[in-house]
Amino acid sequence: MESSYFCTAGGGTEIFLADELKFISARHSGDLQSERCSSSQLQVEGKVLFTFSGHPAELLNLKTAERVFVQLCYKPHWIKQNGKDSSIMTALQNTLEAITPQDWDNAKHTWNFVNPPKKRSARFQNNQKSSEKLCNKRQKTENDDVTFRVSLKCPREYNNRRVSSMVGGCITRQTGWKVDLRKPLFEVYIQLNNNHLIIGIPLTKIPLSDRPYIETIGLRSTVAWIMAHKAQIQAGDTVLDPMCGVGTILIEAANSWKSAKFSPQN
Ligand SMILES: C[S@@+](CC[C@H](N)C(=O)[O-])C[C@H]1O[C@@H](n2cnc3c(N)ncnc32)[C@H](O)[C@@H]1O
Q: What CA–CA distance (Å, rounded) separates 180 from 72?
C-alpha cells in the first residue's frame, strides 16, 4: 500500500535525499533502467515529502536522511493564510480535526511495521484476561495502550506549551490515544513556520543519521556519505582521505562500498 512520508535533511542536501528516494522507489518497482518510479516527491527547505509503496523498514536504510516520518498533514503557506493572532489556535484546531481517526490509525499502522507491537500485545492480552473477570469495567481496547507526546516546533511568538497541549487534546479526542510526556510510545511531530505546517510520526526514536558504527562525532554522517557517493567508488578501488580527521567519510564509505579498500593515508 502506498503511504505518505517525509524525511528531514541538512540544509542544501535535500537534492541528494530526493535522488536517493528516487533510487529506492525505482528499485522497489523494478524500474531502475528507465528511472521511472511510482512515487511522487516534493522538496522543501530541510525536507523531502514523498509517497512510497514498499515496506516502511526499507526507508531506515536511507543514508542522506536525518529522520523519517509517516506524514499526516502538509499545508504550504499555512501561517500566511491563517494570520498570526489568536485565531491561529482555532485554525490549527480545525486543521487537526480535518485529520480523520482513520488517517491517524493508518499512520500508526505504518509505524507498527517498524515497531512491532509484540511486547505491547502480550501486556494487552494479560490486561484483557483480568478485565474479563471485572465485568463492570469497560472492555480494554488497543488504543488504551497507545501513548504519545507532541513535539512542536513553532515560531517564538507562539506559546509552545499552550499550543502543544491543545494539539495533544485534539489528538486524544480523535484517536483515544493518551498523552504521556515521560515515556510515550511515539511522538507526534508538528512543525509550524513561515513556509508550512507539517505533521508526522517519526518511524524511529533515534535519528537515522545517528550511525551505530560511528563512535566519534565529526563531520555530519549524511554529508560524509554524500561525499563518498560523489567519489563514484568502484569495486577494487583504494580510497584515501589524506585529511581524514576522525575518519567519518572513510567509515561511511567503508560501510556502503564494501568491495573497495580504505586507507587514511597512502
Ligand atoms: C573537516 S576535518 C576532515 C573530516 C574528515 N575528512 C572526516 O571524514 O571526518 C579536516 C581535517 O583536515 C586536517 N587538515 C587541515 N589542514 C591540513 C593540512 N594543511 N595538512 C594536513 N591536514 C590538514 C585537520 O587536521 C582535520 O583533521
A: 20
Q: What structural domains and CATH numbers belong to the chain? A: 3-113+143-202 (3.30.2130.30), 221-263 (no CATH)
**C-beta 239 within 6 A of ligand 1:** no
Is 264 a pocket residue for ligand 1 (Cβ < 6 Å)? no
Cα(240) to ligand 1 centroid in Å equals 13
Question: Which amino acid appears at position 213 of this protein?
Answer: Y
Nearest one of 37, 43, 101, 94 to 72, comparing CA atoms: 101
CA dihedral 206, 207, 208, 212 (to 10 degrees): -50
> pTM (2 decimals)?
0.86
In ligand 1, which atom is closest to the CA atom of 249? 8
Q: What is the pLDDT of residues 69-92, one digit of tens each?
A: 999 999 998 877 776 666 788 889
- φ and ψ at residue 212, rounded to 5 degrees: -65, -25
| 27 vs 117, residue with greater confidence | 27
CA nearest ligand 1 atom 27, residue: 245
pLDDT at residue 127 greater than cutoff 60: no
Mutate to test the pocket of ligand 1, among 221, 222, 240, 243 (most ligand atoms within 8 A of CB): 243
